[in-house]
């Protein structure tokens, strides 16, 4: 492979890596001394070498643009590809390259699909234009934190000490250790912590389901799975129980037909849930749609649409919704015809005879079972929203048709979060807003199930020998073997090790930065000490990677061939050609697992032909050159799945030429339209919308299920583990929520200077609270509880409910020697307690805060973000 870094030098100066810009001169901690300006020099070993050069830039010398001379498009090659990651959408990126170096990125301009032309942007086919993160991708691709060759830990875990090793050494050591772990500790010894970093491609897929790691560990015969998803386990549970499927989503364009949009814990201006949501919501606004926001924060989405903001205490949404249901029932505003035809257990009349004696939803709301009618006055005490506002909203929702109650996932990212989602489904159903254009049944909101992976099915691929709630791994490791099933949400395979607690000795991270992203990080830090093998596969030196034994450099989506899938919404495919050769010694995940399989089969005769079975179209030369094999997989996927099953006539070659393929639908896609208009049964056991869950009502022994503890079979208000109403509020008076940042995708992009110019990690506090504590914007504060402590600057605002704090997830952790996180990662404060349905309790943390003398380290210092320290130290 030709490495063209030195060419990059001559065409675009060192500044292509981290270019000087105005913000480089502004160091929040004061002065320039901690900032190393990094550049890349020509390689001596065929791989790029990073060195630190002490350059500082005065503001007046900073130049906003780094290319001289500026290369025009006619001097560059244009390649259409897509952005990647678990970010809420999937947009077009257009790479403009010189030689093997991307010097510029642009995005969709209307011309990259069949029949497209420059500027084309219609309601039926809006452009797939990238957001600020996508457009900054080049800075991530060439960042100093880029992992360029395999590394092995030489210091203690988390000490940042690694040395460079060869692929041969890395893979033979990992393979040998895997065989030993399986032999010594059995088939649960390796924990699969792959996640969605690369979920949305058909070939190089990271995920718990159908992902490359699941396939690899399943076929190797040693895997503990992680079954709960951080994003929306509560919501998934609710959608499955209620509708029998998570495909309860409409396409984005349906929003344009709503008369009322209730953004419940939903801030689409920040957290994308589709590609063109805002475009269609703007259309709705222009057509007279009213907007409401139920959120502790007054968000930018509310500001843009001039929404009626109803601030609510976090994690009390199910109570407010119950009160809305109370108002609707008491005033006879519900759609009884819809209920009678499509809903099970909404009231006594829709509860089948075999469940006589069980509770129904309406009687619960009216207080028949517990003598507590769920009135707006009752709810006001819990959620802090005035009873009259609850009535007004309920009235508006019941009387405006069609109305979209979009109940997003964040309020469900809390203990008993599924009750919020199920309560929302009850409201959607009682007002007859399901299956109608302009209504909304979301939930999970998946609007399209694209054709699955490009590699062939293998019956061993997704096997596991135990499965646990994802963020209970540390609890399991620290307490092994004295752990009860319900403490870890154990979901044993009936035919293997029934009920045995997994003996986890190893973790693999692929497409995940989970050490940084799961809950209660201090507990994870204790647990990781007990492991014998930790492998991190990533293109970047991540905060998780710092705790690994081996770092394996993975090619990014610019450096391999694939087809991109939309996230939850969007009927389209985007071709992802290999734009440049992999940087340094990077390989794709598929290459690494294939080669590991060949090494494992050589060590263990029972794994005969593992390499070939894992990757049937390849032989061992795949590790050196994957291109022809990848092309063959993708072409046969296109021809089999897309052309054959989805009846697409465009050929593979033509698709590659255009770059995108969009499905033109006859009418906007509305979930459950056929159920409502054509009488098709819902996918639940009863064929109805199950507000009364027949599945949950049938469970006798909860400790024998993965849930561990009882979950009500109708939606109910259940007190969260912690909240402003809980006695713990005396000690920790602030409810911390940690939504998703606009300037990052979780932890991804945390190190990108351009994006840091737009936002910084800070804790948001209400002005009256701040005044009481003597805190001003920009003051450094510490936020803490029994689980941990973070140091961050404060941002004072009136756009937040008093008593609530906001600290965005995804900051790259930087604990000091006392375990205080100086970077401000909220997961040092979050709870890892097991919520029965599997919801992560991220938004369920009570904390205290005060002004601090400790220094916030925003990640510019050597040990935090400049992960290139890892290289420098041991070269
Ligand atoms: N406090 C709090 N914490 C949260 C949340 C919250 O709301 N509050 N939200 C949670 C949610 S919803 C989520 S989804 C998680 C996200 O948690 P993660 O999935 O751990 O977060 P990412 O930062 O997206 O990390 C993905 C990693 O995959 C890597 N990657 C990308 N492509 C590839 C590839 O092709 N191969 C390999 N091997 N690696 C690749 C990226 O470089 C990145 O390091 O965070 C959770 N954490
Ligand atoms: N820019 C960006 N977009 C993303 C992501 C990203 O990291 N960055 N991540 C993607 C992923 S993986 C996911 S899972 C989704 C997450 O999507 P969501 O879950 O919808 O997003 P969040 O940002 O966590 O929260 C949305 C809103 O909920 C509010 N909120 C928090 N707790 C409560 C509560 O208890 N009640 C009420 N009523 N409101 C509450 C927050 O203040 C915030 O305004 O976003 C996706 N989109
Ligand atoms: S929304 Fe996601 S896919 Fe779209 S450009 Fe932004 S980061 Fe990329
Ligand atoms: Mo997520």
Folded structure, characterized:
It is built from 27 helices and 28 strands. The chain has 875 residues and is of the alpha/beta class. It has four domains: 69 residues, no CATH class; 280 residues, Rossmann fold; 249 residues, 3-Layer(aba) Sandwich (Dimethylsulfoxide Reductase, domain 2); 140 residues, Beta Barrel (Barwin-like endoglucanases), CATH 2.40.40.20. Strands 7-6-18-17-16-8 form a six-stranded mixed beta sheet. It has a six-stranded mixed β-barrel with strand order 23-27-24-26-25-28. A four-stranded parallel beta sheet has the order 12-11-10-14. It is globular. The N terminus is likely disordered. It binds ligand MGD (2 copies), iron/sulfur cluster (SF4) and molybdenum atom. The site of one ligand MGD has 36 residues, from helix 17 and strand 17.
Strand order within the widest sheet?
7-6-18-17-16-8
Distance between the termini: 22 Å
Extended strand count: 28
CATH topology of the largest domain: Rossmann fold
- Per CATH, the class of the largest domain reads Alpha Beta
Task: Using the 3D structure, state the CATH architecture of the largest domain.
Answer: 3-Layer(aba) Sandwich
Question: How many separate domains make up the residues?
Answer: 4
Q: Can you give the mean pLDDT?
A: 89
**What structural category arises from helix and sheet content?**
alpha/beta
């Amino acid at each position: 492979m030709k490495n063209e870094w030195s060419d990059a030098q001559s065409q675009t100066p060192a500044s292509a890596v981290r270019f000087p810009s105005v913000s480089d001169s502004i160091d929040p901690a004061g002065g320039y001394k901690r900032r190393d300006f990094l550049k890349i020099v020509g390689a001596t070993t065929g791989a790029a070498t990073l060195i630190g050069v002490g350059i500082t830039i005065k503001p007046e010398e900073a130049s906003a643009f780094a290319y001289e001379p500026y290369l025009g498009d006619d001097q560059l090659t244009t390649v259409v590809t897509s952005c990647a990651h678990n970010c809420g959408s999937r947009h077009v990126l257009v790479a403009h390259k010189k030689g093997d170096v991307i010097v510029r990125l642009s995005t969709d301009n209307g011309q990259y699909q069949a029949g497209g032309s420059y500027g084309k942007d219609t309601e039926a086919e809006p452009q797939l234009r990238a957001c600020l993160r996508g457009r900054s991708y080049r800075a991530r691709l060439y960042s100093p934190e880029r992992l360029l060759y395999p590394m092995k830990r030489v210091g203690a875990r988390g000490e940042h000490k690694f040395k460079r090793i060869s692929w041969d050494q890395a893979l033979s050591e990992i393979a040998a250790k895997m065989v030993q772990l399986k032999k010594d500790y059995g088939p649960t010894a390796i924990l699969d912590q792959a996640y969605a970093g690369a979920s949305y491609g058909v070939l190089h897929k990271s995920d718990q389901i159908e992902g490359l790691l699941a396939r690899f560990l399943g076929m190797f015969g040693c895997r503990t799975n992680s079954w709960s998803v951080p994003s929306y386990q509560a919501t998934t549970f609710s959608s499955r129980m209620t509708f029998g499927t998570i495909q309860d989503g409409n396409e984005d364009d349906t929003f344009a037909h709503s008369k009322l949009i209730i953004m419940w814990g939903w801030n689409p201006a920040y957290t994308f849930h589709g590609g063109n949501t805002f475009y269609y919501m703007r259309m709705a606004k222009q057509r007279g749609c009213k907007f409401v926001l139920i959120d502790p924060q007054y968000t930018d989405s509310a500001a843009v649409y001039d929404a009626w903001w109803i601030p609510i205490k976090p994690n009390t949404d199910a109570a407010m919704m119950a009160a809305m249901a109370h108002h609707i029932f008491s005033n006879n505003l519900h759609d009884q015809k819809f209920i009678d035809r499509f809903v099970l257990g909404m009231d006594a009349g829709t509860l089948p005879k075999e469940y006589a004696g069980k509770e129904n939803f309406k009687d619960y709301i009216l207080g028949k079972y517990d003598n507590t009618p769920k009135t707006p006055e009752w709810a006001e005490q819990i959620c802090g929203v005035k009873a009259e506002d609850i009535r007004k909203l309920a009235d508006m929702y019941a009387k405006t048709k069609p109305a979209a109650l979009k109940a997003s996932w964040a309020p469900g990212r809390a203990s008993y979060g599924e009750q919020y989602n199920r309560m929302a489904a009850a409201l959607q159903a009682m007002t007859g807003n399901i299956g109608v254009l302009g209504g909304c049944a979301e939930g999970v909101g998946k609007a399209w199930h694209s054709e699955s992976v490009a590699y062939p099915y293998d019956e061993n691929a997704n096997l596991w020998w135990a499965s646990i709630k994802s963020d209970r791994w540390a609890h399991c490791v620290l307490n092994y073997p004295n752990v009860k099933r319900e403490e870890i949400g154990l979901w044993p395979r009936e035919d293997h090790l029934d009920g045995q607690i997994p003996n986890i000795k190893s973790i693999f991270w692929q497409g995940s930065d989970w050490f940084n992203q799961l809950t209660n990080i201090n507990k994870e830090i204790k647990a990781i000490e007990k492991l014998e093998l930790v492998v991190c596969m990533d293109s970047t030196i991540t905060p998780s990677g710092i705790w690994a034994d081996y770092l394996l450099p993975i090619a990014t989506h610019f450096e391999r061939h694939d087809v991109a899938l939309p996230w939850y919404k969007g009927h389209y495919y985007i071709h992802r050609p290999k734009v440049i050769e992999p940087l340094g010694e990077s390989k794709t995940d598929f290459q690494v697992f294939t080669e590991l399989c060949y090494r494992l089969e050589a060590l263990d005769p029972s794994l005969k032909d593992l390499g070939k079975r894992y990757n049937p179209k390849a032989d061992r030369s795949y590790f050196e050159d994957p291109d022809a094999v990848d092309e063959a997989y993708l072409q046969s996927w296109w021809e089999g799945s897309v052309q054959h099953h989805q009846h697409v006539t465009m050929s593979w070659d033509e698709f590659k030429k255009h770059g995108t393929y969009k499905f033109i639908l006859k009418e906007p896609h509305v979930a459950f339209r056929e159920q409502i208009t054509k009488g098709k049964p819902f996918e639940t056991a009863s064929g109805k919308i199950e507000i009364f869950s027949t599945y949950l009502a049938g469970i006798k022994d909860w400790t024998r299920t993965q849930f561990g503890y009882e979950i009500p079979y109708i939606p109910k208000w259940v007190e969260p583990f912690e909240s402003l109403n809980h006695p713990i509020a005396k000690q920790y008076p602030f409810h911390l929520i940690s939504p998703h940042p606009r300037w990052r995708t979780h932890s991804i992009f945390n190190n990108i200077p351009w994006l840091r110019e737009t936002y910084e990690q800070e804790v948001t506090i209400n002005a009256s609270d701040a005044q009481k504590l003597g805190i001003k914007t920009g003051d450094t504060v510490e936020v803490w509880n029994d689980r941990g402590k973070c140091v961050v600057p404060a941002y004072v605002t009136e756009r937040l409910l008093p008593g609530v704090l906001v600290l965005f997830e995804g900051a790259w952790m930087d604990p000091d020697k006392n375990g205080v996180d100086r970077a401000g990662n909220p997961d040092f404060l979050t709870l890892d307690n097991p919520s029965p349905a599997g919801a992560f309790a991220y938004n369920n943390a009570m904390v205290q805060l005060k002004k601090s003398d400790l220094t916030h380290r925003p990640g510019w210092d050597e040990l935090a973000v400049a992960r290139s320290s890892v290289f420098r130290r041991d070269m």
